[in-house]
Amino acid sequence: MSGACSGDALKLARAIAREQTVEVPPGVGGEALEARMIGRLESVEPATAMGWDQPRSAPNRHATPHFHAGIAYPLAATGTELTQILNVVYGNVGLMNGVRVVDLTLPDEILSALPGPRFGIGGIRALTGATERPLVGAAIKPLGLSSTELARLAATFARARADVIKDDHGLTDQPAAPFTERVTAVAAAVATANAATGGRTLYLPNITGPVDTLAERLELVAALGLSGVLLSPSLTGLDTMRAIAAGPRDLAVMAHPSHAQSAPGRSEGIAPDVLYGTLYRAAGADMVVYPDAGGRYAWPERACRAIAQRLRSPLGPMRPALPTPAGGMNIDAVDRTAARYGPDTLLLIGGSLLMQKDLEGAARRLVEAAARAGNASP
Amino acid sequence: MSGACSGDALKLARAIAREQTVEVPPGVGGEALEARMIGRLESVEPATAMGWDQPRSAPNRHATPHFHAGIAYPLAATGTELTQILNVVYGNVGLMNGVRVVDLTLPDEILSALPGPRFGIGGIRALTGATERPLVGAAIKPLGLSSTELARLAATFARARADVIKDDHGLTDQPAAPFTERVTAVAAAVATANAATGGRTLYLPNITGPVDTLAERLELVAALGLSGVLLSPSLTGLDTMRAIAAGPRDLAVMAHPSHAQSAPGRSEGIAPDVLYGTLYRAAGADMVVYPDAGGRYAWPERACRAIAQRLRSPLGPMRPALPTPAGGMNIDAVDRTAARYGPDTLLLIGGSLLMQKDLEGAARRLVEAAARAGNASP
Question: How far apart are CA A266 and CA B354, in angstroms?
Fold first, then answer.
């Protein structure tokens, strides 16, 4: 939150607490209603400590001091529907410049109403059989390959005993590899490879798509005996992930951050650790993809660690979720990334793996490196 | 898009075109595939002309020059599903700082696949009977009132012959006014008032909520004989609005920008005129709420005019949508706002109307002012 001086900051914080709830000028709702419904301002302090999530522009920081405001919203305003929780946490204030959500604590009532991960870290380990070591994930891509070509890639990764294979998040239902054809072909290829190796590689098809196709796509996924899906919840709406995680099908969910608009160092939006670490997890993600430090998005390491920490910290009755750092991760960086995040991590290697001449050999070495990293962990 | 020099900008533009499609390093996909799937870079130019959508920080502007890049994405990558169109327009680049969508032209294939407004400006005029003048809308609020109190407010506005009454966008299914109870009570109150006045005031209940409640909520809305709904598409996912607009129920949709994270003057995100003006309309909004200049969000007038312009400009076979400026609009500002936008506008007056002692009289004067403004239009 930015304001010219602490008086302005106090005024802005009060305006936010009102904007996000009753959204009427003082006096309209009556005192009793306002006391019941408006967010309670708990603190307003200059943001003197330079956290990793400070806006990146140094000149701006001097010109406009930043403040942290703590606001406690009543359950009477949020209810327990995820759409309205988001609306109160970051609704109309998203239309204002200089207001950012940098922390979020959800009360027990909301934590028990939202599903959280169905599988969690333990459940994904049980599905894959990978114990006590970082998991390895690979992506089938690029967009434009045929279903047969994508299935061939998946078979290669499954023979190398990658733990997880995901669709590229841009693979939906395009003519080059239509959904039903692709998912059926890839699932068969992975099943064949699993039967040959005795392994349990998971295939997560991307089901991000029109709301009125989701039921049908989930039905195919279940009919093929797959254990999970890939979803970009910020494209479909976060509540679509909540509905899948809370729904009748026993599917793990990997969340992809496309279109989420949350990155470190901005003056607006929801901070990455809050969105990917707390909200994606609360909405039911078992695995959460985010750009790793050192990758092509240039995110600072502290921001990435903060996401992983929120995914694995206690959160009411919810299971921990698997941090899934990605985004230009080099195949030589497995040791560094494993050391950064520890064994409860899914290392997602995309394009740099696909550049290797001997794809199966390279994938196999990745899995071996992950196994070594697990042994090296304390 | 910001880059240190034009060479960097060119490199970044190429990286964006790749990131948003194949998302693999050069060489992986093969030349033929890349030629078919990667966005075609059409232009990279220094953003010398200072448009209204330039980032707001002057020091930053000097430190980091800005460039406009034109990229044409192939239909083979986008397909015609809205989620994937958004993913290509602003997917992974949403995770990068300094990349903003400032313009968007949709091809005929996409324009005919998306619904656009079902009613459009003409259809809303036909529903309300308001011809050739700005329409007047009022909101029932605040959150925390009972269904009976909200119904009483709605009756007052309907007796004053407001054209449209909308739920506050924060009214969902909270205990103070649960969805079914509230919508039933308000619909009945508005119907009674309409019968008394001979008017045709529309009531738009807020159906924003969990995806698995939408069908049921829409069914109630239709069963009550209502003609439209309010939805915050950036909370539910834009595709939910598309599905309603393309669906079997004959309902007009008013879109509210809560959680949309698009505001003027930022270095990231989708510019407000592109998101609210083109994408919300293409996804089926008949009326689009946005913060008006002079209101409490301090948006520049040019940004607001640009939204209205996109809502009413030719867009393939799609009907025009009603600009619905709001957000702290003063009841004395009707003439100014009507002059700013012309008669094809819905003037949404919220809190400042609710502050009036004689609510019905004040609402009536608003409608009269709108009628005068219509007569004064060329």
Answer: 36
